[in-house]
RND multidrug efflux transporter Acriflavin resistance protein
Amino acid sequence: MNGLIDAAFSHTRVVMTALIVMIIFGVNSFNTIPREAEPDIPAPFILVTLPLPGVSPEDGERLLIRPTELEFQSIEGLKQMDSLAFDGAAQIILEFLTTVDVDQAVLDVREAVDRAKAEYPSNAEEPVVTEFNLQNEFPILTVMLFGDAPERAVYQTAKALQDKLDSISGVLDARLSGAREELLEVIIDPKVLESFNLTEVEVINAVSANNQLVTAGSINLADGRFAIKAPGLIKTAADLMSIPVRVNGDNVVTIGDLGEVRRTFKDRDGYALFNGQPAIGVEISKRAGANIVETIEEARAVVKREAALWPATIRYEFLSDQSVSVKDNLQGLTSSIVTAILLVMIVIVAALGLRSAVMVGVAIPTSFLISFLLLTVFGYTLNMMVMFGLILSVGMLVDGAIVIVEYADRRMAEGAPRRLAYAEASKRMFWPVVTSTATTLAAFIPFLFWQSMPGEFMKYLPLTLIFVLLSSLVVALIFLPVLGGLLGLPDWMKKKFNIKGKSDAPTKQLLVDEVDPTTLDGPVAIYARFLTRLVRRPLLVLLAAGILVSICLALFIRAAPDVEFFIRSDDEQLNLLVLGRGNMSEQQKIEIVKEVSARIEDHPAIEHLYLQTGPALGRDRDVPAETIGQVGVDLIGYTEREHSSIILEQLRDLVQDVPGVIVEVRQRESGPPVGKDVQVEISSVDFDAMVRAAKKVRAYADAANLTVNGQEVPAYMDQEDTLPLPGIEWSVEVDRELAGRYGLSVQQAGGVLQFVTDGLLLDKYRPDDADDEIDIRIR
């Protein structure tokens, strides 16, 4: 290693140029590195959604889940498979080992789904395979559109805004919430249909036959070649009304003769209210590795630019702006880092003096900037775990620099030239500094092999420490000695101003090894004499150390501090989940959710309230299945209110006695997702036995109590389960033999039932003013 150090001192210009280049690139990396609140880690979960309109949970399990699960069993690295069937679709959640490449797992899942599709019913829709991402679980920004405008105007405005936001490079997806899909509806009077002696099958066949893309080709004539166009697709309601259903001579019965055709929206299966007004939300999620602050700033700019073109009756508000918390957290951690650097510098000045402290102080920002460069090169982001790592490293990264500078000062005090003193310090202290850094890194390297979701989340901390300490090692052994050898005052300046430097000491100096520290004065002498007495009594020192350790352990056990997996940080968003059971209509659900909202709307810390109902809420993997509604709470700024954990308890007290429902108040988890504190999973080949066991566990959890400060309190709160939900279901059984006597089939009987429910699906069409296909349904 001496050759490396000699080469550095022989090529000082190259070394200093490299240092300056690294600092410049480090500054650029700090300014451009993506910023986010928490590490964006690849979660080993994949969600498979299998839609089949109208399918019951029992049939969904038999027709969709079973054949798909059989194909999934052969996928390598699959850890766990959970399935859920509900009305109209089924979901399968796949958990893989953390060592599995998620991208490859997605490809394997898609191939397995393609194989299983051959077993699905013919009317099943295309399965959707989604990679679960922690950053996408919660939107980084929600844009709420509301006002006195008609629903169609708000919907079309939200769709146009969605397209604009999707075009932003950092946006992964912009989803609409609270919006109803459009529908071309044919309302037919059954008496009219009967009077023409028509059946619904004839209507379906007529619409399908007249809503086809006809590729007529082209024709060659003497004067040229011409393409032939035969428009056959439905584009407007008038096209649908003119479709003939039956022709008898000159008499033609069209769809328009059978009833009314109108373009409307699907029946409401949920509500979305913003501060009491109907609204549509545009929820924005970011791409992995994108800068959350820049993405939100660009999204805000797009919204403001588009809003200038909207009618005055449509207004907008921003909710759940994650960039605010990211900025606040990073600014707070940055202030903590600056404070830590100042405190370290104060200690170094007190111990080594101002001149040496300046040399050591150079190592702190230089090491940090090189670390930012390494983080950017390896594709990492700047998040709170990285900032915590920087705070921890402040005191450690100066150790090597202190050793080098202190040794160089000692050699200069003995009369050695500055350049020679720093070169010798780097050579003599090379292995001690390397060994000291290696032992520190050895304590953090095992965290890199923590194979789990928490391990993937926590690895940013040891990675940051490794980058910083390796950077500080290079700075202390290469850059700092070369810089120290160059920064001495020139001889002409010393002579002119009569300045005495450390290298201008007398030729004869006492060496440190020749001095007995116990004969000196001051704190060093006191410490030396005290240490001398302890060395002479080793058994007494060991006994005292054992007693001290025992006392610490006893005090820790007696204190019994609360144990948490991750710190409870403040959050500006809270969620109130309204849980209820029974056959409630959507109107009944929203009225209950409104009652919950009314109880908390006067709380001084609440800025906005966002109410949602609908079946999609209960299908979220982290939300109880009996969830009938949700109240999203946006809090005011942190400096104007109490901590969110205190507000959470206050809101829980306000909604604990809402009749007929249970209200669960939640705050988003900090750190890697781990779910609730106690989770019990029961599996069995006997479904009825499994249900009985689950009910026993739930009954125990509901009844369990603990004694705290002499009072009996419930041991658990916010219990939930995945037991089948109770409710009333109407079942229509068709006598096939009797139906056959009347010339009917099960399909025709089912079609008649759909007339009075969601409407019978005739076909789909794509109008000129819509990007998506719209259902054509008959009622």
Remarks:
- The first helix runs from residue 2 to 10.
- The mean pLDDT is 82.
- Residues 162 and 701 are 44 Å apart (CA to CA).
- The chain has six domains: 2-21+326-511, 33-138, 139-179+268-319, 182-265+731-778, 516-561, 573-676.
